[in-house]
């Protein structure tokens, strides 16, 4: 019986597990995703860029509010969707009925014409909104 237990011990090889992880492929995928997000993030921001006028102001709360942006060229954006004046006039009343905002914040570029801002204010007023805020960039405290 002693010979049976010893049979094959010398021939048997132990398999060792390969514990190495090849992370090169993982790093490649992560870098590609990072590049995709870096390229698409600015596009997802939407709206139009404006330079807000500087004035003494306090921070605003965005609860139940709508944003209207007017740039220097007179383009109008309603919650980051760029519209013509006629489209804005039609869409604003519908959006007010859907959202029921408490306040409308108007972000007017400092180079925007006063007439463009006044026309937008007229539409906001005609829709029954009584709380309108003009968004400015806060100046440093004196």
Task: Give the arrangement of secondary structure elements.
Elements (H helix, E strand, L loop, with lengths): L1 H5 L17 H22 L8 E2 L9 E6 L5 E3 L2 E3 L1 H15 L3 E6 L5 H13 L5 E3 L2 E2 L4
Parallel strand pairs: 1-7, 2-5, 5-6
Antiparallel strand pairs: 2-3, 3-4
Characterization of this structure:
With 142 residues, the chain is α/β, with parallel strands linked by helices. The chain has a 5-stranded mixed sheet, covered by helices on one side. It has a two-stranded parallel sheet with strand order 1-7. Strand 3 and strand 4 form a beta hairpin. The longest helix is centred in the N-terminal third of the chain and has 22 residues. The chain is elongated, with a radius of gyration of 31 Å. The mean pLDDT is 78.
**Number of helical elements:** 4
Which stretches of 5+ consecutive residues score pLDDT under 50?
none
Helix content: 25-40%
Estimate the strand proportion: 15-25%
Mean pLDDT: 78
For the sheet with most strands, the description reads:
5 strands, mixed
- Radius of gyration over alpha carbons? 31 Å
What structural category do the secondary elements indicate?
alpha/beta
Order of helices and strands: HHEEEEHEHEE
Q: Could you tell me how far the N terminus lies from the C terminus, measured between alpha carbons in angstroms?
A: 100 Å
What is the number of strand segments?
A: 7
- Globally, the shape reads elongated
């Amino acid at each position: 019986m002693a010979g049976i237990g010893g049979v094959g011990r010398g021939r048997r090889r132990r398999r060792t597990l390969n514990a190495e992880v090849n992370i090169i492929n993982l790093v490649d995928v992560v870098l590609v995703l990072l590049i995709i997000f870096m390229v698409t993030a600015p596009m997802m921001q939407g709206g139009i860029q404006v330079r807000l006028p500087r004035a003494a102001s306090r921070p605003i709360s965005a609860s139940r509010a709508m944003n209207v942006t007017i740039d220097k060229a007179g383009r109008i954006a309603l919650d980051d969707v760029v519209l013509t004046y006629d489209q804005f006039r039609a869409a604003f009343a519908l959006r007010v009925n859907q959202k029921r905002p408490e306040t409308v914040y108007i972000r007017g570029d400092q180079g925007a014409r006063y007439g463009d801002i006044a026309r937008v204010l007229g539409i906001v007023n005609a829709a029954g909104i009584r709380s309108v805020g003009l968004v400015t960039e806060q100046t440093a405290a004196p």
